[in-house]
Amino acid sequence: MDPTVKMQSSSSDGAIRAVRSAMRVLLLVIFLGCLVMWAVMPTNTYRKIWLLQIKANTVSTFFGGQGATMLMYTFPVLFAAVLGCVYLHLGKKLNRTNKFKSSTEEDRLAIWKKPVLVKGPLGIVSMTELLFFFMFIALLVWSFLEFLHNGFHGIEATAAKNGEKLWVSKLGAAALRLGLTGNIVLTFLFFPVARGSSILPLFGLTSEGSIKYHIWLGHICLALFTSHGVCYIIRWIAKHNLLEEIREWDRTGVSILAGEISLVGGLVMWVTTFPKIRRKKFELFFYTHYLYIIFMLFFILHVGISYAFISLPSFYLFLVDRFLRFLQSQRKVRLVSARLLPCETVELNFSKTPGLQYSPMSIMFVNLPSISKLQWHPFTVTSNSNLEQENLSVVIKCDGSWSKKLYQLLSSSSPSINHLEASIEGPYGPASTNFLGHDTLVLVSGGSGITPFISIIRELIFTSSVLKIKTPKILLISSFKNSSDLTMLELILPISNPSLDLSAMHLQIEAYVTREKEPATTKNFNTLQALWLRPKATDIPASPILGPNSWLWLGAVISSSFIIFLVLIGLLTRYYIYPIDHNTGDYYPTSAQATLNVLLICISIAMAASGAVLWNKKKNTMEARQVQNIEGSSAYTSPALFYNEDKELESFHSQSLVQSTKVCYGGRPDLKRMLFECKGKSVGVLASGPKKMRHEVATICSSGLADNLHFESISFSW
């Protein structure tokens, strides 16, 4: 590289790092400020002094009483999300020249990522996760006790005045405080499920890796809200007015009936989330989760929009993400081929534009209307966006009714199977990876858990053969039930780029077939079978989504949608609601005001997101046409490049792969011995597969017997 260019690049990187450092400080101030707000919210100082002063200074004819909560709770989170988009955009620029964290930085963070809990209701939990979990529980306990202490103050006089027994009044006060505490949990509930979130990457998290946090928060939230409702029911029974209370829909106050509808919707969702039901009846779990719309809508109607804005920021960001995903899912993508493995596994290959970039271990949601029009299933992306510029692949293991129907459909001998309509959402993955920060990389998989590691190995192939950067030694330890499952190893190397130089790769594969004591006969044993599909002219290659591939556009959507909402609600309040209510809250119906706010939020998000998507559509269309022209001139005229009908499909590098592979039958790997034998200052250990296997690996790495083992669990709990 020219020294002048190198110096300019270094100077530019330095400026970007300086800006990002300043932004980190600002984001930290916002984060700490939000924590302080939550910590002081239950106190009398906040409610009787600070809040009254803020309301006196913010109440207006444009926003009414909800202006204060929007300013204190909604605006800081949305501002942090927009700032995070800019921060991540600048980070992508740095990642182009410095894709991986240094080993020194990784060493500093290693102790915080090491598992401290392995078995138990929380699953595998690191030191950082446990610390934040206890901090969050402490916040909830403090909030409830402080709420309760203030609520019980003078309650004896209140009970006597209302002619109630003291325990009945105390039960009512406790029920209200349980609801207020549940609202704190609700505030965080939707952050983990915003797949294109700019908040999660700021904490080094991904949506798929944060699903367990959503599960934890969901259990706590609904436990508190259920206790809130049960306590009130007991109170009403004690007062002999149960039937009157449960039907009450106050015109300008709290709507009890709306709260009951919200709670019932939440309880139905909650019941279907327990592992036994979710795994055996996934369709039931999937469809009942759409009740989140009922749950949130009637929650807002129950508490009123002014109070709801305290917990709405995460839901607002979720709605932005959800609508962008909806727009992406409306496009039919080009599914160009499928490969069928004898172990009842399918690889689907989609066409994509070169502009669609994603990280290893990304996941993608797939919808196939011919199997189910409503179901979307997440699968690991096995292709690499650097090696395979125009190809996007996922691997699907038959482990449910949906995947079995797909395999049966593709493996049927019907000549009509030459087109399969498909839509996708994603890919979604980590903002950056740190594989080069280790001397050795140990990948432990069980069954279909090998799929995330295919993308990792392909990324390291690109790094080694194209970028000419030294890569860590790779030890892949895979356990399979049967010999037929070994064919999944043939997916490791891409067939679309046979000119790669793999001589610099240090790849060792140890495969274990646990249910067979000797190799199966190969007389009737077919390897990879391929099916060439012919997309329709209206199908388009997968293209980038706003968010992970364009953080600035996501920031523009979030900020512009909120500005549009403020303008619309300001005009509506000033010229319609204020002339009726005059900011008293006594005349205009609370439910109507909440409904109008929700409607305007949806309209604002739809306007901003649709405008951004249409603006980017021209660029995506040009790239899609280029890909279609390439496919039309090569792929369709030379399908042998992708498959050989009625013959085995062989990879160019399959021989070198076989030489690197050792297969053992009739036993399981001695993971403890194998991990402790790994040499090097830093050994990255990734585990993907059954829970028992991941727990075993986590236990070994957290035992303290080997300080060089750095563990990471890969689990998708959708």
Q: Care to describe what's here?
A:
The protein has 718 residues and is of the alpha/beta class. It has 22 helices and 15 strands. Strand 9, helix 17 and strand 10 form a beta-alpha-beta unit. The longest helix is centred in the C-terminal third of the chain and has 46 residues. The chain starts with a helix and ends with a strand.
Bulk shape: globular
> What multimeric state do the chains show?
single chain
Mean pLDDT: 83
* H/I helix tally: 22
What is the β-strand count? 15
Range of helix content: 40-55%
Estimated structural class = alpha/beta
Q: Give the low-confidence spans.
A: 99-107, 633-652
> How much β-strand is present in the residues?
5-15%
Query: How many whole angstroms does the radius of gyration measure?
Result: 28 Å
Largest sheet: 6 strands, parallel
Task: Describe the structure concisely.
The protein has helices at 3-40, 44-58, 66-95, 103-113, 127-152, 155-162, 166-189, 211-239, 242-246, 256-272, 275-280, 282-288, 292-303, 305-308, 312-329, 401-411, 451-465, 551-581, 590-635, 654-659, 671-676, 691-701; strands at 115-117, 125-126, 335-341, 345-351, 363-367, 377-380, 391-397, 423-428, 440-446, 473-480, 507-513, 529-532, 661-665, 683-688, 709-714.
